[in-house]
Amino acid sequence: MPANATPAQPAQPTGAARVALADVVPPIALGPLDGRYRGAVAPLVDHLSEAALNRERVHVEVEWLIHLTSHQVVPGAPTLAGEEQAYLRDVVATFGAEQIAELGAIEKVTVHDVKAVEYFLKARLAAAPASLGPDTVLPGVGELVHFACTSEDINNLSYALMVRGAVHDVWLPAARALVAQIAELAREHRGAAMLARTHGQPATPTTLGKELAVLTHRLDRQLKRIERAEYLGKLNGATGTYGAHLAAVPGADWQEVSRTFVEHLGLTWNPLTTQIESHDWQAELYSDLARFNRVLHNLATDMWTYISMGVFIQVPVPGATGSSTMPHKVNPIRFENAEANLELSCALLDTLAATLVTSRLQRDLTDSTTQRNIGPAFGHSLLAIDNLHRGLGALHVDHDLLARDLDANWEVLGEPVQSAMRAASVAGVTGMENPYERLKELTRGKRLTGADMREFIGGLGLPDDVAARLAELTPASYTGLSAKLVEHLDD
Q: Which ranges carry the Fumarate lyase N-terminal domain (predicted)?
């Protein structure tokens, strides 16, 4: 900078101070999943949002109250009539914006989320006569709400229900649909001969369909693991001993009450825990989800590479811009977006799986904050699935390029020729010595034509039928069982 130059000043907004975006109504999302990409991940809100957590807490508390009264666990407790049970379950069914706001206001006073749910539900019991008449027993069972429970009794069951719902109602259907789409592409292109590349170099030909089938098979195996996942739950008190339960009602079979309740919710009962359910099932599930993501990441990078090679042609979207300065470009953004979101999802899932299995002694609260990030972990995976679905749907195969690529690499037939020479040598044909070395000398670092290869085959002294078979071979026909292997997708 010249000695007399004036240093550039930081740019300042002209006029009044900038608008505080944090104060804008409706609120602006901090993260892209609730902002730019909301449409792709919105179905997860029903399962993995803070509001969904509170709705499941209300659901668990309601079902625990009904379970205690239906099984006459606590002496003197009334049995709820059908209309009273329906009234309670309707509290869950109608849980929406108004109830979310009400519960939030209660929590500001309690500074405790589960206690707020308890007070929220007790208020509904007190108000029951307005709907059910003065004879309803609901106002008198308020002390059975959260009976003998610690917060984690409610939370662990709520999270298990939330994650199960997210997996089975949202994530798995989307993942299955994507894998089915890839499988259909594999079947469609099972016979599309293609030069393979190992280490980036021309290699034994395959078919495009067979390569897509490999990825389909890998993804399907991971889906089957995820489909078999167990969702565990517990209800056994502050340190997993049923201490408060026995102190209050010593005559009840509390293990049986707990087991039947957890199974009533559709979960697997965990009989041995500290204050928390150990979360091992979550770690197992998230590891499987991360593995699915990583195979999908392999698909995304392979498709990106095939596009860059020209194997796939992207269909331009009318009106869309591929590059801000290069009008000819159609960028593979769907695959790049998927790649990045899969990496973000895996990072979160790996952290969840690694940290949720540890809790200091009988309880610490690190899992409370950690589990609130289950939604983003699923969200980034779901967003990647959505991008891949759309990206795959906008591709055409350039069969002419595949044919040209194969015809430019006749040297790949060195493998079948030297293999046939080996077999002939074993059968007693003379002159078949050093087949690998002879083909290496012919092909390595060279470009051969079909005529070159046929001339070499003709001078080997192979049996006539073998020589004729090899002379008819082309790179495009040297695909082995590739097309047939795709049939394994129907196993």
A: 35-338
